[in-house]
Write a structure and sequence with these properties.
One of its GO terms (molecular function) is thiosulfate-cyanide sulfurtransferase activity. Keywords: Repeat. This is Rhodanese domain-containing protein. InterPro entries: Rhodanese-like_dom (IPR001763), Rhodanese-like_dom_sf (IPR036873), Thiosulfate_sulfurtransferase (IPR051126), Thiosulphate_STrfase_CS (IPR001307). By secondary structure, the chain is an alpha/beta fold. It has two domains: 136 residues, Oxidized Rhodanese, domain 1, CATH 3.40.250.10; 82 residues, Rhodanese-like domain (Oxidized Rhodanese, domain 1), CATH 3.40.250. The chain is built from eight helices and eight strands; from the N terminus they run βαβαβαβαβααβαβαβ. A five-stranded parallel β-sheet has the order 1-5-4-2-3. Strands 7-6-8 form a three-stranded parallel β-sheet, with no helix packed on it. The protein is globular.
Length: 232
C-alpha cells in the first residue's frame, strides 16, 4: 500500500495486512455498514457495529455515546483494552473513520482503517463470509479525551482568531442552506471554509488520495499545519 508522505501511515492498512492478521487473537475486524449490507457478505470473522455513528440514543442521537454506552458496545463487539481494531465500510471510509475517531476519543488508539474498505477487499479477491462471529469475553475501559471535541463557546471564539480554520465537511446543500437535513437552522458557521469530506477520497478505489494530493487540496482551502483546525 502506498502510504508515502502520510504523517501517520500506521492508521491505514491494506488488504494483504488484514488477510494476514484477521485470525490473530487480539484483532477484531469491525464492519461499519448497516445490517442489510453485512448480511450480503463481509470479511470473515468481522463483527457488525450496532450503530455506525456511535450516537447517544438518549440525546436524540445528537452526541457521541456516553461512557457506559460505549463500553457496552465495544464489549459486545469483543473489543477490549488490548484489542487491535480494524474498521472498514463501503462508504469511502466515512463510517470507519467515525469509529476510528470515537475509539480514539475514548482512549483506545490501537485502531486502523482498511484503506479502500469493502471494495478493496472484494477487488483483491478477499474471502467473503455470511455468518456472525461469536462474542468473546473482554473488558473495555473508556477513558474519554474531551480534547478531541470542541464546544460551541470555544468555536465561537475560534471564529474571531486568525490562526484558526473552521472546516465544514458537509454537502453543498447543507453548506448553502438548501438542504436542512432535518435541522432547525440552515447555513454554515460564519467564516468557515467548505470542502466536502469525500474530496479527499478516490472515487474509483474508495481509498484515501495520495498524501501530496491531499496536502495540495487542503492548502488550496487554507487548511494548513500552522492553523488550529476545527471540523464539523
Amino acid at each position: 500500500m502506498a502510504t508515502e508522505g502520510y504523517t501517520h501511515p500506521e492508521f491505514l492498512v491494506d488488504v494483504a495486512w488484514v488477510d494476514a492478521h484477521k485470525g490473530d487473537g487480539n484483532v477484531v475486524i469491525v464492519d461499519c455498514e448497516v445490517d442489510a449490507a453485512f448480511a450480503r457478505g463481509h470479511i470473515p470473522g468481522a463483527v457488525l457495529v450496532p450503530d455506525n455513528y456511535e450516537k447517544d440514543p438518549d440525546s436524540g442521537r445528537l452526541f457521541l455515546m456516553q461512557p457506559a454506552q460505549f463500553k457496552a458496545m465495544c464489549e459486545g463487539l469483543s473489543i477490549g483494552d488490548d484489542t487491535t481494531v480494524i474498521a472498514y465500510d463501503h462508504s469511502r471510509s466515512l463510517t470507519a473513520a467515525r469509529l476510528w475517531w470515537a475509539l480514539n476519543t475514548y482512549g483506545h488508539t490501537d485502531v486502523k482503517i482498511l484503506n479502500g474498505g469493502w471494495r478493496a477487499w472484494v477487488t483483491n479477491g478477499g474471502a467473503v463470509d455470511f455468518g456472525r462471529a461469536a462474542p468473546k469475553s473482554v473488558t473495555f475501559t473508556p477513558k474519554r479525551d474531551d480534547s478531541k471535541l470542541v464546544k460551541v463557546d470555544e468555536l465561537k471564539q475560534a471564529c474571531q482568531v486568525g490562526d484558526s480554520v473552521i472546516w465544514d465537511v458537509r454537502s453543498d446543500g447543507e453548506w448553502d442552506g438548501s438542504n436542512s437535513r432535518g435541522n432547525k437552522r440552515v447555513g454554515h458557521v460564519p467564516g468557515a471554509v467548505h470542502l466536502e469530506w469525500f474530496n479527499l477520497m478516490d472515487s474509483e478505489t474508495n481509498e484515501f488520495k495520495p498524501a501530496a494530493e491531499i496536502r495540495r487540496i487542503l492548502t488550496e482551502h487554507g487548511i494548513t499545519p500552522d492553523k488550529n483546525v476545527y471540523t464539523y
